[in-house]
Amino acid sequence: MEYEDKDNRPDVLKDTEGEVIEEPAKAEEEVLPEGVEPQEGVPSEPVEAPAETAAEEAPTAEEAPAASQRRGKAFLGVVVEYLQAIVMAFLIAIVIMAFIGRSYMVEGASMENTLFNSERVLVEKVSYYFAKPDRGDIVVLMNPRQEKYGNWFLDTFGFVKDIFVSDMSTRPYIKRVVGKAGDKVEIKGGRTYLNDELLEEPYVSEDIWWDYGPYYVPEGYVFVMGDNRNHSDDSRSSVGFLKIDRILGKAVARFWPLNKISVFTRPDIFKAM
Fold first, then answer.
1. Per-residue model confidence as pLDDT tens digits over 110-135
2. Catalytic site residues?
3. CB under 8 Å, gap of 24 or more: what pairs does 269-272 form?
């Protein structure tokens, strides 16, 4: 007589050969306090990085010198770039000062009441590449004691010397052009005459103490005087007739002090001549 297998216990199973397999007991569910929800994917303990990962990140004894060398080359490259920029800026400044223009500081009282000591002016060179200095121009000229040097050398590198040497006797002069080639300049009775015509000069604050001339300006030269006629070393004394190629540039504006910023123009008396 055959009997049916009525073993319906829920905790056992049968495999294909009829063997009884114990069903694994279910893990007891963790009972959480009321109001606390279970979190998924959060380990109960910190996970440590595998030891081999840390070992891979640390440079080996062979790699350390190479890494240091790469850092050294990168630093050297930055230094070289900075040096190149400095040299390039210096060369550009040299070109500008030698051929275009630069600033000068007024030293002394020879141009009062137009310019005063320690004021700064902007001087450009381009105008005199195409035209000669004209009457009424305010010009910067080489110091007569610097005759042995050329304009380019003095004007380009003279500013370096000015920083360290306080010898006023070698600094450039700043004066006003009064006469040009072919003009007759004469001072009498405290006043200036140009080609026998009286110059009405509002920038001259007092009469000139002594008579001078007449002077006849030769070709290639100009006659210059300071606006402070009684306190100026100019064409009436050591400067003499000024050769045009000794003019370093034309003063076009005053930019210091800020409350006296102004642009220089030729006086009307010269425009009419």
1. 999 999 999 999 999 999 999 999 99
2. 110
3. 269/136, 269/199, 269/200, 269/201, 270/134, 270/135, 270/136, 271/136
